[in-house]
């Protein structure tokens, strides 16, 4: 394992920002972390773990050590007539894992198709899309504790999953490096087509006998129609979380905005699409120099080329301020701003 110095991270973040890290090390195996933890000053310097770099916005150069998690591996731990338990390396590409599970006829994550990033990032923020969250198939994960140098296991309760949240984004932030993730997938899956435009897209596709591959194809079609390809236009997907508001607040908003969309979160709260709120504030399609808001999806901030991270941070704050002013709703970034 080699530690590189003063390395450009342009190809390590999907915004395509040309910023520099003081140091960069690539992790291929858990042993690499153990070796690295013995390097002098390791415990005192700033540390950032990168997977696919699809959920991070660098506001400027990173004065610390970046660990690129490339731990690979896909294996079946056990199975029975109903389920199969798979153990995945944190550096595996998430979408490729979804396709692998579909090829084997294992359901549960087909609605999470085409989400950018790696397996290790999936439980960190409890990824979700089209009515499904990772927590619904999560069994446990393995993580390297930086303080002790030992591998620990975290089950669903330990992870304290919430909406785009886990304990690794809260009290245990920067204390562990996720190395492996174990999922429980179904051999006889229940199809989830109730969220968003999935059912309509399946109908347009002419699907008659539904399969998990059909659902995946529909989700991919929807995402590709709305979201820009980071290889073409720099972006990190959905920049903000969909806000969750009390039903009383939602009802008050409906008196003025009768067409405001919402989805039930639980008996007392509802989720409002952040993209709709942003669009109502006239941000959709906005562009200033190298930065902007995508013309097809207001939830996506983009780098058209040569943008600075600070410019995108400032744009996000302007959007937050306008939504707060008009609707009284705080937008919280889903993207990790460094």
Briefly note the structural class of the backbone. Answer: alpha+beta
Distance N terminus to C terminus? Answer: 25 Å
The main pleated sheet reads as: 5 strands, antiparallel
What proportion strand? 25-35%
Rg over CA atoms, rounded to whole Å, is: 20 Å
Total beta strand runs: 20
List low-confidence stretches: none
- CATH class of the largest domain, anyone? Alpha Beta
CATH topology of the largest domain: Uridine Diphospho-n-acetylenolpyruvylglucosamine Reductase, domain 3
Write structural notes for this entry.
- There is one protein chain.
- The chain is globular, with a radius of gyration of 20 Å.
- The two termini are 25 Å apart.
- With 338 residues, the chain is of the alpha+beta class.
- The strands form 6 sheets. A 5-stranded antiparallel β-sheet has the order 6-7-12-10-11. Strands 1-2-5-3 form a 4-stranded mixed β-sheet.
- The chain has 9 helices and 20 strands.
- A hairpin with a 2-residue loop joins strand 8 (128-129) and strand 9.
- The model has no long low-confidence stretch (mean pLDDT 93).
- The protein folds into 3 domains: 3-69, Uridine Diphospho-n-acetylenolpyruvylglucosamine Reductase, domain 2 (2-Layer Sandwich); 74-186, Uridine Diphospho-n-acetylenolpyruvylglucosamine Reductase, domain 3, CATH 3.30.465; 234-337, Alpha-Beta Complex (Uridine Diphospho-n-acetylenolpyruvylglucosamine Reductase, domain 1).
